[in-house]
Amino acid sequence: xxxxxxxxxxxxxxxxxxxxxxxxxxxxxxxxxxxxxxxxxxxxxxxxxxxxxxxxxxxxxxxxxxxxxxxxxxxxxxxxxxxxxxxxxxxxxxxxxxxxxxxxxxxxxxxxxxxxxxxxxxxxxxxxxxxxxxxxxxxxxxxxxxxxxxxxxxxxxxxxxxxxxxxxxxxxxxxxxxxxxxxxxxxxxxxxxxxxxxxxxxxxxxxxxxxxxxxxxxxxxxxxxxxxxxxxxxxxxxxxxxxxxxxxxxxxxxxxxx
Length: 258
Fold this sequence. Notes:
The chain has 11 helices and 2 strands, in the order ααααααββααααα.
């Protein structure tokens, strides 16, 4: 998910940093996280690089669109938007998706087939377990929204990309996590420049935050390969719900101050 989903609430609630400065520091840490943890996941062959490149075009456009909205949307609305997105993401992850076997005709005429996006994930029993990528057009639409929210909230958009890949593209959860991690750095870089120009990136805050995030990202990337898909999904949902509650309360506090 990248560290942004944790860093923004921590900096705002525990350290009293303004939300825009927290978002700027978060974007820097997201770039650092993506760069540091991408290598182990690529080595384990969990990342779908071709799919990441296709989806990143939409995510980057969304991030650039979100830059124009920075400073326009009230702070309290940012909190509530963040909380709502977290709740929706948690709900999508909890819903057990119905695994419908796609017809051969549908697969052969899909965007994923034409772009050669289908791949396989390492499997201890069979060596490699192939998977079929779902609806690419829907995935691109969701990725645009993820990039837009990333620019506004500085969360690296992994919190939206993983549920989108899980439900729309129907990827294995580990592939979703690894591919999202590969993409988030590019998305964050697309909007971090605008925050730097606005003066919202405080290097005294962003530097230590990024350093700590790199250490955690490396450890997390190594842990990912040993976790089962169900455990990973449950951890993801718990984190989303707790953060949604915190951000909703923060939105009410910010609204009362205005």
